[in-house]
Design brief:
The protein has about 150 residues and is α/β, with parallel strands linked by helices. It has one domain: Maf protein (Alpha-Beta Complex). The protein is built from 5 helices and 5 strands. Strands 2-1-3-4-5 form a 5-stranded mixed sheet, with helices on both faces. The two termini are about 15 Å apart. About 40% of the residues are buried. The model has no long low-confidence stretch (mean pLDDT about 95).
Length: about 150
């Protein structure tokens, strides 16, 4: 089963999954955690982590992926956080910068921790307008899922 945790894509990965007939057999749920508060409340992302590293960071993407697993019955998660634009970018976090994280538990216990899971993260820099950045992010996330599951 798959769980998604999405910020900049606003649920587009889950939507793309549900475009496929029969996806209810393998898509468990999706979290749209656009605000920092939602990341904390729905996924358990530590607010100090967000304050220290920013919402668009490897650390937060990793915490989102692990939090999605903890708050679902899924065996694999994908999380995305980024700057889709056209505003909101900065020198260190330009428009198009997206962090993607994929996670799977190495055990199915309820106390899933970083030491009991496999997490892969990747920083991406996509070009184009807001729609292009979001679409590229979705495609990259799904390609990463396919690679992880092979």
């Amino acid at each position: 089963m798959l769980v998604t945790a999405e910020s900049c894509t606003g649920g587009l990965v889950a939507a793309r999954c549900t475009d496929l007939a029969g996806s209810s057999l393998w898509l468990e749920r999706g979290f749209v955690t656009y605000s920092n508060e939602a990341k904390h409340e729905m996924l358990g992302v530590d607010t100090q982590l967000i304050e220290t590293h920013g919402a668009v960071s490897e650390e937060v993407a990793r915490a989102m992926a692990l939090g999605a697993l903890r708050h679902s019955r899924a065996q694999v998660s994908v999380a995305l956080t980024g700057v889709a634009g056209p505003g909101g970018g900065s020198r260190g976090k330009p428009v198009g910068k997206v962090w993607v994280a994929w996670a799977t538990p190495s055990d199915s216990g309820p106390t899933l921790g970083a030491d009991t899971a496999f997490v892969k993260t990747q920083r991406c820099l996509f070009t184009g307008d807001r729609a292009a950045v979001r679409l590229a992010s979705v495609e990259h996330a799904i390609q990463g899922l396919i690679a992880l599951l092979k």
